[in-house]
Amino acid sequence: MVPGTHKLRRAPKKGEGHNGGVPIEMPKGSVVFFTHGVWHWQGDRTEPSDRVTLHAHFNRGILRSLEPKKTDVQMLHRNAPRLGEMLGEDDWFDKMSAQGRDYGRFAYMAKLRAFTDQRKREILEGA
């Protein structure tokens, strides 16, 4: 990975980036986290056996992936409830309804936006 490239807020140009790359070597079973803006690539594998890479993308709770997730239910039971929340499997607003999973979130966000707009008006009128 190339440290500091997330501050550039752009993708690398052709031929750019590899000269500043720093290898991340870790023991088996380790994990590395970085934001989407960091320039990175997989180097050539010199060790025998397979390399396993898991790309997990997390969004704010109000957002949902366009693709349905196929999460192993047994994995959710083996881990802390927070994992289910992070994967979007648990409804942390506790607003499940017949209108669908995100109906409650949408209604909540509409109320929050109305409150914010009202407070903004009050502040601007008082200025």
UniProtKB/TrEMBL annotation:
Positions with biased composition (Basic residues): 1-12
At the top level of its lineage, which domain of life is listed? Bacteria
Q: Which residues does the annotated region (Disordered) include?
A: 1-22
What is the protein name given in its UniProt record?
Phytanoyl-CoA dioxygenase
